[in-house]
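Justification of resources, computational component.

The compute hours requested in this renewal are based largely on the per-chain cost of generating structure records like the one below. Each record pairs the submitted sequence with a full structure-token output. That output is archived, and it is also reused by downstream analysis tasks.
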Amino acid sequence: MTTPHPHDETSAQLQYTRPPAPPGSQLDWASTVTAPTEFVPYSYTEAEVQRITGRRRLAVSSVVCGLLGLALGVVGVFGLPIALIAITLALIARTTENRARTLWRSGLVSGLVGVLLAAGWIVYISQIVLPLL
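The structure output for this chain reads:
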């Protein structure tokens, strides 16, 4: 008389996989306990997305002010205050916005060129135009 092995009946009914997660949701914690971490998808929260992507406002405003100061610096000394604002914003963005390096550098360079153009206009006016008056 032989008795069936107790694991024979249950081994055919073991479920080695878990039911899939509903579309658009994260995996259940219990389903990720044994999974390697590189296979577990991670979904970012809105705060994390905003923290990563939203920190470019100072750099963008630095570029805009720098280009405006550069354009007004070609015409005259009117672009000097805006170019100085661009330099200030670029220096602040340098410490706070690490991922927007190209933007704040562009704002810094265009602001510096705007200041140099305004300084050139000041020298031109003081050395050439004022002695003629």
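The radius of gyration is 32 Å. The chain has five helices and no strands.
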